[in-house]
Amino acid sequence: MLKPDIRHQPQSTWEKTDETLLWQQFREGHQEAFQGLVQHFYRELHFYGGRFTRDSDLLKDCLQDLFLDLWTYRHKIVQTPYVRPYLYKSLRRKIHREMMRHSATMSEESVTFDDVSSEEITAEQALIRTELSDYQTARLNALLAQLSDRQREAIHLKFYAELSNDEIADVLAVNKQSVANLLHRGLSRLRESWPSLLSLIGSWLLNETFTK
To answer: Taking a C-beta distance cutoff of 8 angstroms, is the pair 14, 76 a contact?
Structure first.
């Protein structure tokens, strides 16, 4: 059902504006739409899930379960214009539940949003929509590593998943003001540590963060 090797996954032909239509057709039982849903979201969900766990088998199982549940219960799932946050929230919940089930000492608060390996393109490099040099990317990742887990996750969801503040609040189970605070503190710290960062990524990174 799912493509096991995401490294060679073809670029999805579905644009973000088509996600609601894709979701509707999947709910109506169209297998082609379901496959399109998997293809469209698998890579980014895999990347997001990989920030919580380095256990590739656990992550793969959670993704398989997520899409299997979607297909099995498609007739009971409501139509929604918020497909992306729905999937992010569902995967996040599954991963946290599985991690806590495998560790008696782990709680919801102890699940971290980890740094990615240097072999992968980072979500943060993608979120700024520009090409940074290896040195600049390494410097940005080092600064991001100094932020809290919640700040890093909020930045990921804002600029990589392209969720609104309301949608991020739903995924993180916090209010909208908390999301604005997380983004403000995280991005302000980046700006303080690297003042010229704005000249590389554009002022929109800070200017458009807190009102949407």
So the answer is: no
